[in-house]
Design a protein that fits this description.
The complex is a heterotetramer, with two copies of chain A (about 350 residues) and two copies of chain B (about 325 residues).
Chain A lengths: L3 E9 L18 H26 L13 H9 L6 E3 L5 H6 L4 H8 L23 H16 L6 E6 L6 H13 L3 E7 L2 E2 L2 E2 L12 H5 L3 E5 L3 H16 L5 E6 L18 H8 L3 H11 L5 H32 L14 H14 L4
Parallel strand pairs in A: 1-7, 2-3, 3-4, 4-8, 7-8
Antiparallel strand pairs in A: 5-6
Chain B lengths: L2 E2 L1 H15 L3 E5 L15 H5 L4 E3 L4 H13 L3 E5 L10 H6 L4 H4 L9 E6 L23 E3 L4 H13 L4 E6 L8 E2 L13 E4 L4 E5 L4 H10 L6 E5 L2 E3 L3 H11 L2 E8 L4 H13 L8 E5 L10 H4 L3 H12 L2
Parallel strand pairs in B: 2-3, 2-4, 4-5, 5-7, 6-7, 10-11, 10-13, 13-14
Antiparallel strand pairs in B: 1-8, 6-12, 9-11
The chains are: A alpha/beta (about 350), B alpha/beta (about 325).
Bound molecules: thiamine diphosphate (TPP) (2 copies) and magnesium ion (2 copies).
Chain lengths: ~350, ~325, ~325, ~350
């Protein structure tokens, strides 16, 4: 027995908040990949702005804004292949969009429609998870199914928050992941807050990456507002997972720039100065600077992108509102769908009674 | 006297009990500076400090399991779980420990805690934020209390805090701010285990609890002249005050039970079975139950179509009057 | 044909389904080389290897949560939880995820898993090893199946494994080795959702399930000549086959429900309420319920005094015949 | 942000399996304390032997043997004062006995009587915990009650097993303990097995002490069969806890020499050679050697001790059997006691019906 056992948690930053590049660590994405990532981040930010407006106008319900977390959400998702799985928590619209979830579905979900959770046929993406950290176990199970079925070259990416690391399900998941050596990458969005609870009251651990030590698996801390660092860290972890190297915990150090949800008022519990300080670390301008330096981006392109994205959002809002109206009218009984493969007799009778009543026949 | 909504009434109960008894503490997610997501604990942190109003990490089993330890260690913890849908993370502690500890320790260690949380639909909340699954908490050794308005919410929460046994206290979130009642500043202590006849009548008994009391009373209003309805507010779901219901049904001969949650294995089944044990020969018509449907709690866009309303209650009352 | 006890019958079902369908896997604590603490998975590890018979760490939420992931990932997991008392650690996954995932994903992701565990008393087991709290699993989206003997245990487990939806499969541990039945090697597939009239009769209907079927049948034996009793074995607790019970009660006019667990909020309440919806006018006498008492599951030294037995069933039958 | 964060887990052994003492680390218990500890260990071993006999004779039900774990169970309990709390799992009879739980209660419990869980008035000891790891949260709550009530100079000692470290409740407990800085010492009895599951299939972590890293609290690995090391490690951790220094995780490396419970047959899953190898590390002869070297012990004393303990056990068995017989006769309705402070009406009626029936009056 050694007198002392030692563990280390590395920290990765490629592009610091002043835009200085650590060239040795640059993952060197191709132009196409880099622009795809930037597109995803800008699109996510614009969607977030629009959701906020829609919510204030009463056209959707409460939702969880993502502004500030675009790098840590988009970059991991960008690294996924169609064979990989994506398992998201409730604050991962950027990753969902990057993955190809249609925008109008995200609007529909936030407007309280079951149909908002529909995932395109063929997309290995789960509906978002509301029960904090419960999804970590689903990811492990999917990874273990791959192991047991001999499915190679695929991995599972699962997101959760800093608050989520307090839950038993999270620890159970990383411990199981270690025992089973599943191809799962856990990305912890350490955005410093769980509603009104700051990280210091969530755990005494200095980093969230070190939670991995409990499971005997690798953990790494990453600047979550650094798109290049997130890109690199998740690519390496996913590659390792896909080639049989087992699971990884990645802590993305980022910040929730807005309220927890639109039902929340952060002024009650956090200092505006803190938010201001984090503005300087905004992932979008930082990554834009990198693109510009490489000659891949300029003001004209920026303008074109923003107007393209806004146009897309306008169209999706129209699509969503038409669909919402149609669903309410034509399909009030959606909750009776998909309860079981074959509905039991009592449920059929209940559905008929419900429809008679809703149609004013009862 | 002052007009208060249910949130204010609950807040009053907490504040006064904390003043009265230094061993009462409050814990849960965001209950501190933030005052709880529904503001039930608003101002308590400022008044009593972080040692009596504890923001916990995000961990429901941890909240209930540690609250049990605190209760054994001499405190009276009032633990909040943020929404009904997250109470199930704490189910093992409730079933295996909290509910049994008086019994397991032969009375040596008791668990005088309150586990309170908002439940039920009607506020256009997210998935897992609108469940009404009250029956799942009705375990031997636990009391399950459900107020229906500001005044009884306050007096029953006071009673729950003073109760020597663990109380699961379900707050109908739809009624949090829906209406106000006179809630006196002076102490009022409810009686756990007692249902209340809130409206006397002779033709039919309607039993309900929590947020459903409003559509029930609305239905009874609407039927004024047509039928004399006796309304029983259950208030304590478990152990159930079957005697009060039975007395009423013996008089009216007819029973309607109104429940928000899905129908199968819900509390209305228990009301029917328990009352039937007592009043079989007195019933003059089939018992009617108005309940949710046996589906996953609907998302908020369509929610209102699914929640029992006064129209359905009226229909059920008419049906039992003209079977 | 071969005589088999319930453990052997369940083992047969698992073995044959694993042979038939390579996506069927078994997981749980000690289910591997050890064959499960009750030996239900005996020999499976040797036959199918560690990739299809997984010993898991000691983690019930982890077992059910990861089994759900495996089901989504294309497997058909049969997950064992070691004892009834430990299922509550997995309740949040059952309530919040497993039961809802077909619905939440609008049919895109389904969860064809079986969660099996021994339940109930009568084997002189430890604390938390003898609970009968079947009603707590009856959630929308889940099926709850409870066999009563070797033959239906085998055929229903096969049906549960093939079922496209999550099935909670409660095994009455008291019946594991208590008796044998002919259980053919040839495939038999039970029908989930169907109760069975196991003994026809005309005077009174007795409904029960699981381990209580034995005292029920013994009681009926003892009353031969005195009363013609129709016995219904529920087999699926949820969704309940109310039609079969109602048909019987319409004929007999009398109903006795026998349940092992504590009385309040138990399945017998649901049987009474659901059947009453259908047969109110046909009842000729009060429904009798024979149940456990509303206490924490008794420890094994006194357990037998508390478990419903044939004498209590007989008494109830007589009472409903002579109300 | 440092490029790398480092964590260490120390290992403590004082008296190795060959009886060699690391004098620098010797905690130097007084003669009286050392003999009390040895008495506790021998008594526990004798009780275990007797329980096994009683079980084989059908006079008690199944139980969880403790042979081999006497040092790791007794030494921590020995360090408790009356102001401290003891929270045990189901395999901690040595600690319970050390703490003063009457022996006949342990027999009663194993014979299936509710009354076996009774703890002497005034003893800050909880009934044993069957639901694995759930007790860790109770310990944290008790510790937090001390913090909040300003109760000083007291600590909580809680035991769990290696299997228990897989459960969410364990991680939730250590994380909460870190945040709240409660005076709780977690002793993990790493006896290598959880029923048939060996440690390697329980976790990929090299040590169980490193689980503490996830919570940001100190963790230490200790030779659990070394009474002096266990004595020292728990004393230090308890002292630290009592003086406001917060929680500690102690991994006691030990071995379950017997079956999991008497319902278990370890031949199905573990190699007898492994058991044989661990026999050489038996904590009792090892500690006896230390006592002998110090001149505190000899063969005559050993003989006297064993016969004294056996006599005590004989008496307790008689006491227990008389009590069991009396309870069944006089108090069949024990399960109706202590459900609530004031029994509800329905329960009173049920109790009366029960008693009428049991007395043959129904
Ligand atoms: C099990 C559970 N408990 C409580 C909640 C309510 N809730 C929703 S989000 C949230 C905070 C989550 O914090 P974190 O994990 O850091 O994610 P973030 O919101 O910062 O993205 C809480 C308490 C929940 N959804 N699930
Ligand atoms: C929550 C829970 N799940 C399962 C069990 C059944 N069980 C009892 S002991 C045990 C193994 C415990 O292993 P460990 O924690 O290493 O303690 P040990 O038995 O070695 O002392 C199991 C699985 C239980 N008691 N509680
Ligand atoms: Mg957060
Ligand atoms: Mg162990």
């Amino acid at each position: 027995m050694p007198a002392v056992t030692t563990f280390t948690i590395p920290y990765l930053q490629v592009l610091d908040e002043h835009g200085r590049l650590d060239a040795k660590k640059d993952p060197r994405p191709s132009r196409e990949v880099a622009l795809r990532l930037y597109h995803g981040m800008v699109r996510a930010r614009e969607v977030d702005d629009r959701l906020l407006k829609l919510q204030r106008q009463g056209r959707i319900g409460t939702f969880a804004p993502t502004t500030g977390q675009e790098a840590s959400s988009c970059a991991p998702a960008l690294n996924l292949t169609d064979r990989d799985w994506l398992v998201v928590s409730f604050r991962e619209a950027p990753a969902q969009l990057m993955r190809g979830i249609p925008l109008f579905r995200i609007f529909l979900y936030n407007a309280g429609f079951e149909e908002g959770n529909e995932v395109p046929e063929g997309s290995r993406t789960l509906p978002l998870a509301v029960i904090v950290a419960s999804q970590a176990l689903h990811a492990v199970g999917i990874g273990q199914a791959m192991n047991l079925r001999g499915e190679k070259d695929a991995a599972v990416l699962v997101f959760l928050g800093d608050g989520g690391t307090s839950q038993g399900d999270f620890y159970e998941a990383i411990n199981l992941a270690g025992v089973w050596q599943v191809p799962v990458v856990f990305v912890i969005q350490n955005n410093q807050w769980a509603i009104s609870t700051p990280l210091a009251r969530q755990t005494r651990a200095e980093t969230l990456a070190q939670k991995a030590v409990a499971a005997g698996i690798p953990g790494i801390r990453v600047d979550g507002n650094d798109a290049l660092a997130m890109f690199r860290a998740t690519r390496e972890a996913l590659d390792r997972a896909r080639s049989g190297g087992g699971p990884t915990v990645i802590e993305a150090v980022t910040y929730r720039m807005r309220m927890h949800t639109t039902a929340d008022d952060p002024k009650r519990y956090r200092d505006e100065a803190e938010v201001e300080a984090w503005k300087a670390k905004d992932p979008i301008p930082r990554f834009r600077g990198y693109l510009e330096k490489r000659g891949w981006w300029d003001a004209a392109r920026e303008e074109a992108l923003v107007s393209e994205v806004r146009k897309e959002i306008d169209d999706s809002v129209k699509e969503f509102e038409a669909e919402a109206e149609r669903l309410l009218r034509e399909h009030p009984d959606a909750s009776f769908d998909h309860l079981y493969a074959v509905p039991p007799a009592a449920l059929k009778a209940q559905r008929e009674e419900f429809l008679r009543r809703v149609r004013g026949e009862a | 006297m002052a007009k208060r909504n249910m949130v204010e009434a609950l807040n009053l109960a907490l504040r006064q009990e904390m003043e009265r008894d230094p061993s009462v503490i409050v814990l849960g997610q965001d209950v501190g500076i933030n005052g709880g997501v529904f503001r039930v604990t608003d101002g308590l942190h400022a008044r009593f400090g972080g040692d009596r109003v504890l923001d916990t990490p995000l961990v429901e089993s941890g909240i209930l399991g540690s609250a049990m330890g605190m209760a054994i260690g001499g405190l009276k913890p009032v633990a909040e779980i943020q929404f009904d849908g997250f109470t199930f993370n704490a189910m093992a502690q409730l079933e295996g420990n909290v509910s049994r500890y008086r019994s397991r320790s032969r009375g040596r260690w008791t668990v005088p805690l309150v586990l309170r949380f908002p439940y039920g639909g009607g506020v256009r909340a997210l998935e897992h934020h609108s469940e009404a699954r009250e029956a799942l908490y009705a375990l031997p050794g636990v009391k399950v209390v459900i107020p229906s308005g500001p005044r009884n919410a306050r007096s029953l929460l006071v009673a729950a805090i003073r109760d020597p046994d663990p109380v699961v206290f379900l707050e109908p979130k739809r009624s949090y701010r829906a209406f106000k009642e006179e809630v006196p500043d002076e102490e009022e202590v409810g009686v756990i285990g007692q249902a209340q006849v809130v409206r006397p009548g002779t033709d039919v008994t309607v039993v309900s609890w929590g947020a459903m009391m409003r559509p029930v009373l609305e239905a009874v209003e609407n039927l004024a002249g047509e039928a004399s309805v006796e309304v029983v507010d259950l208030l304590t779901l478990h152990p159930m005050d079957v005697a009060t219901i039975a007395t009423s049904v013996r008089k009216t001969g007819r029973l309607v039970v109104v429940q928000e949650g899905y129908r199968a294995f819900g509390p209305s089944s228990e009301v029917v079975a328990a009352v039937l044990d007592e009043v079989f020969w007195d019933l003059e018509a089939p018992i009617q139950r108005v309940t949710g449907y046996d589906v996953v709690t609907p998302y908020f866009a369509r929610e209102s179509l699914y929640l029992p309303d006064s129209a359905r209650v009226q229909q059920a009352i008419r049906k039992t009057l003209n079977p």
